[in-house]
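[User] I have long wanted to understand how a fold can be written as tokens. Those tokens are not coordinates but codes from a learned vocabulary of shapes. Could you go through the record with me and say what the backbone is doing? Thank you; the sequence and its tokens follow:
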Amino acid sequence: MALDTKLANAQRSRAADAVTARLNSGKLRLYTGTRPATPDTALSGNTLLAELTFNATAFGAASSGVATANAITSDSSADATGTATFSRWFESDGTTVVLDCEVGTSGANVNLNTTSIVTGATVSVSSCTYTQPQNGS
């Protein structure tokens, strides 16, 4: 029989709060290229476009498993030119990976005004959310 664990909303919110607490003062990095298979997979051929900083309290309390980021400090000078295809989120040490997720201009975990990044330009996040999956399997 296949595993089919489903979390109650209150537990999804607790889990989301535990994950997002790891991001306090952490880094949100935008990359080009194919997103690695998992956050534990090393980057390969991806270009770092920009690095933004999560607030000291990165996210508000989750509701129904969804946490919304507080203000994220913009990158005032992008590192490279390219199209942002995914983001990798790090703890405050800048090396411990928490998760990878999609970027876009709407409907993504990380929404930007544009995914076309230009070297030296300011890069800002218009909205950012983390959703704890209901399925635990």
About this structure: Strands lie at 27-31, 48-54, 66-68, 72-73, 82-83, 86-90, 97-104, 110-112, 116-117, 125-131. The two ends are 12 Å apart (CA to CA).
